[in-house]
Amino acid sequence: MRILPAVPPTAEQLAILADTKPGYMLIRGAAGSGKTTTALLRLRQLCDSWLLRRERLGLTAPVRILAMTFNRTLEGYISELARQQIVGRTGLQLEVRTFGKWAVGMLDTPQILDRDDSAVMLRRFTAGLPGDREFLIEETEYVLGRFEPGNLDAYLTARRDGRGTAPRVEQSLRRRLLEEVIGPYTEEKKRRGALDWNDIAVAAGQVKDVPSWDVVVVDEAQDFSANQVRAIRAHLADPFSVTFVMDAMQRIYPRCFTWAEAGVTPFAGRHLLTVNHRNTRQIAAFARPILDGLAVEDDGAFPDFSACTEEGPLPIVITGKYSKQIDYILDHLIDNVDFGSESVVFLQPKGGRYFDYLRNQLKAEGLPFTELTRASTWPSGTEAIALCTMHSAKGLEFDHVILPGLNDEVTLHGTADDDVQFDALRRLVAMCLGRARKSVILGYKPDDPSAVL
Question: I need a labelling partner for 414 at 20 to 30 A (CA). Which of 47, 131, 265, 283 fits?
Fold first, then answer.
């Protein structure tokens, strides 16, 4: 699968690379502004500057550098970029990890409660509470990710920025959530001797006597939790350089917190990327209305078609049965795409069997493809077509992005105005559109369009 080539830094990126002060740095920008490219350029620049520091001070220990990614698919992508552009330097220890893999690696083979088992337990404990059960499960995840175990009562009076105003979560419901859900859920995990992924973050931050990190770069930081950030902070050398790369408008999980409460303060530098180098003006203009009305947080930015440097064809929207959508799309790709030099991704809300018809049709047309979802190594083959879930597409980019079957039945959400689940879905779809460099095709059944449309 084709990967982003090494590119010379832009004027905006050069200003960031020139900022070598130790401490925390924040890099933000909308989709297409080159955040992942900037993260890699900064990673490379920090390798150079810290190796020079090591030589100047006569140090013998290697410079330890950690690149942290949000999911395994992005880990594979960044690892391949790092292999091509950074790895192999003497005196340098570079690791590219998802947070989960990094944290578990410090623990003594914990028994991990996977997300499906965790959800089953939480559905049982939330059964007696009013409101949508899936929302209550998300709210529980939000609480356990934001607050430390000994400080859960802070949830009773905390502002829930980023969680929307619907459904309403009054203090009485918050107390019931702590007492009737989180308390029993915690006890059940202890009884099983298991840790969920929020526990893993807390436990990783408490590990002692492990080598610390000189340099950390966190990509897609908007979807890290406060406890994950605290765990990273617990393992920094003195001095250190930590770079968070993010866009709050692309946040797809309810993990909002303030930098100050996570202990990240003050920032030695803050930088904003404004030019959209990836999307055409037409793609950015197509994605923009999906986000209209959402609150713009300090660390977020709307897609800005006026900041695009390229023009391209209008996005295509097709309606009809899923099979007819796929047939039309494949004919269009065969007629219009150079599979020798361009990349195509099919994105769907769910994976597995939801790709079955597409797999069969690609094989029938003799079009090789690869599957990216949850892959921790980037595919090394020559396939030009990738299949991927929408969530796993974070941080990636392709020439052509296809979203077939964008129906309401597979894009579930609440029904109230300002519903946090619907807001997250809008961010997710806009993020997916922002993966495209040249063209977008979107499809849905005319009698069941996703509410996002």
Answer: 283
